[in-house]
Amino acid sequence: MAVLNFAPPTQENTVLADFLQDYSIEVMPRTAEKIADFRDLLPQGTRVYIAHIDGTPIEDMVNTARRLANDGFAVMPHFPARIIKDRATLADWITRYKNEAGVTEALLLAGGVDHPQGDFSDSMQLLDSGLFDSAGFTRLHVAGHPEGNKDIDPDGSRKNVDLALRWKQEFSNRTDAKMAIATQFCFESAPVIEWAENLAENGFDIPIHIGVAGPAKLQTMIKFALTCGVGPSLRVLQKRAKDVSKLLLPFKPDKFLTDLAEHRAANQNFLITNVHFFPLGGIKTNAKWAQENAGANGIPANQS
């Protein structure tokens, strides 16, 4: 058993380490291929989302899911509604994940294409199909947008986003599925806290897994943020980018996550319960940051 040496815990990093317990991370089949053994990077049982980008063969998705599941990780593949041709295709994907990789978890989302390529246009239709329940999928996550989403609400409002989230809450109320909201990544804590507290005040109780951009060069972070439609919190990056000398330096989520961790520590009913990483600077870089900040929670499976 390898021995990892961590800095003596302070009150601040203990709070952050507690918040990072059971964090999840996202990969794609093509990035997963570059990792020799995920057990050298991630804690045992880490939930690994597999992003399904349009054009990725389902065979590659299932093979990646099987590999991760065989190594002891909880696997959650994406089901992007707009790239699923029809009910038969959806049923086939669900069956293959279940039978070939033992998967019983899924992230349901509209997907990153402008127009539906088949019968489905949003995650609510996928939930309403009943196919996940009949296949024995026990955990279903859905997308959340703390800063809104211009693809869903082109006018900049939150009308459609909020209506969809209310529908998902009602679905959670009437089913046995374990649900959570996995959000887009953000950079500013105060609006995120306000958003989560507002949901709680309006009767929502679905746990929120906050999306976090893993460490990456500032210019890389800005590029992804613009591509992914990050909202007002982009100003955090833009402010830092005014100092040209910082463009090639890594931008880390320390302050963002510490702010959220401290709020959760002081408010035990806070809906944000987990951290979900988008490893924009690479899986290894993200895993190393987690090991340094999550204490025993971040020890890789092969070193625990």
UniProtKB/TrEMBL annotation:
InterPro entries tied to this protein:
FAD-linked_oxidoreductase-like
List the keywords (alphabetical): Oxidoreductase
Q: Which Gene3D superfamilies match?
A: 3.20.20.220
What is this protein's record name? Methylenetetrahydrofolate reductase
The lineage is: Bacteria, Pseudomonadati, Pseudomonadota, Alphaproteobacteria, Rhodobacterales
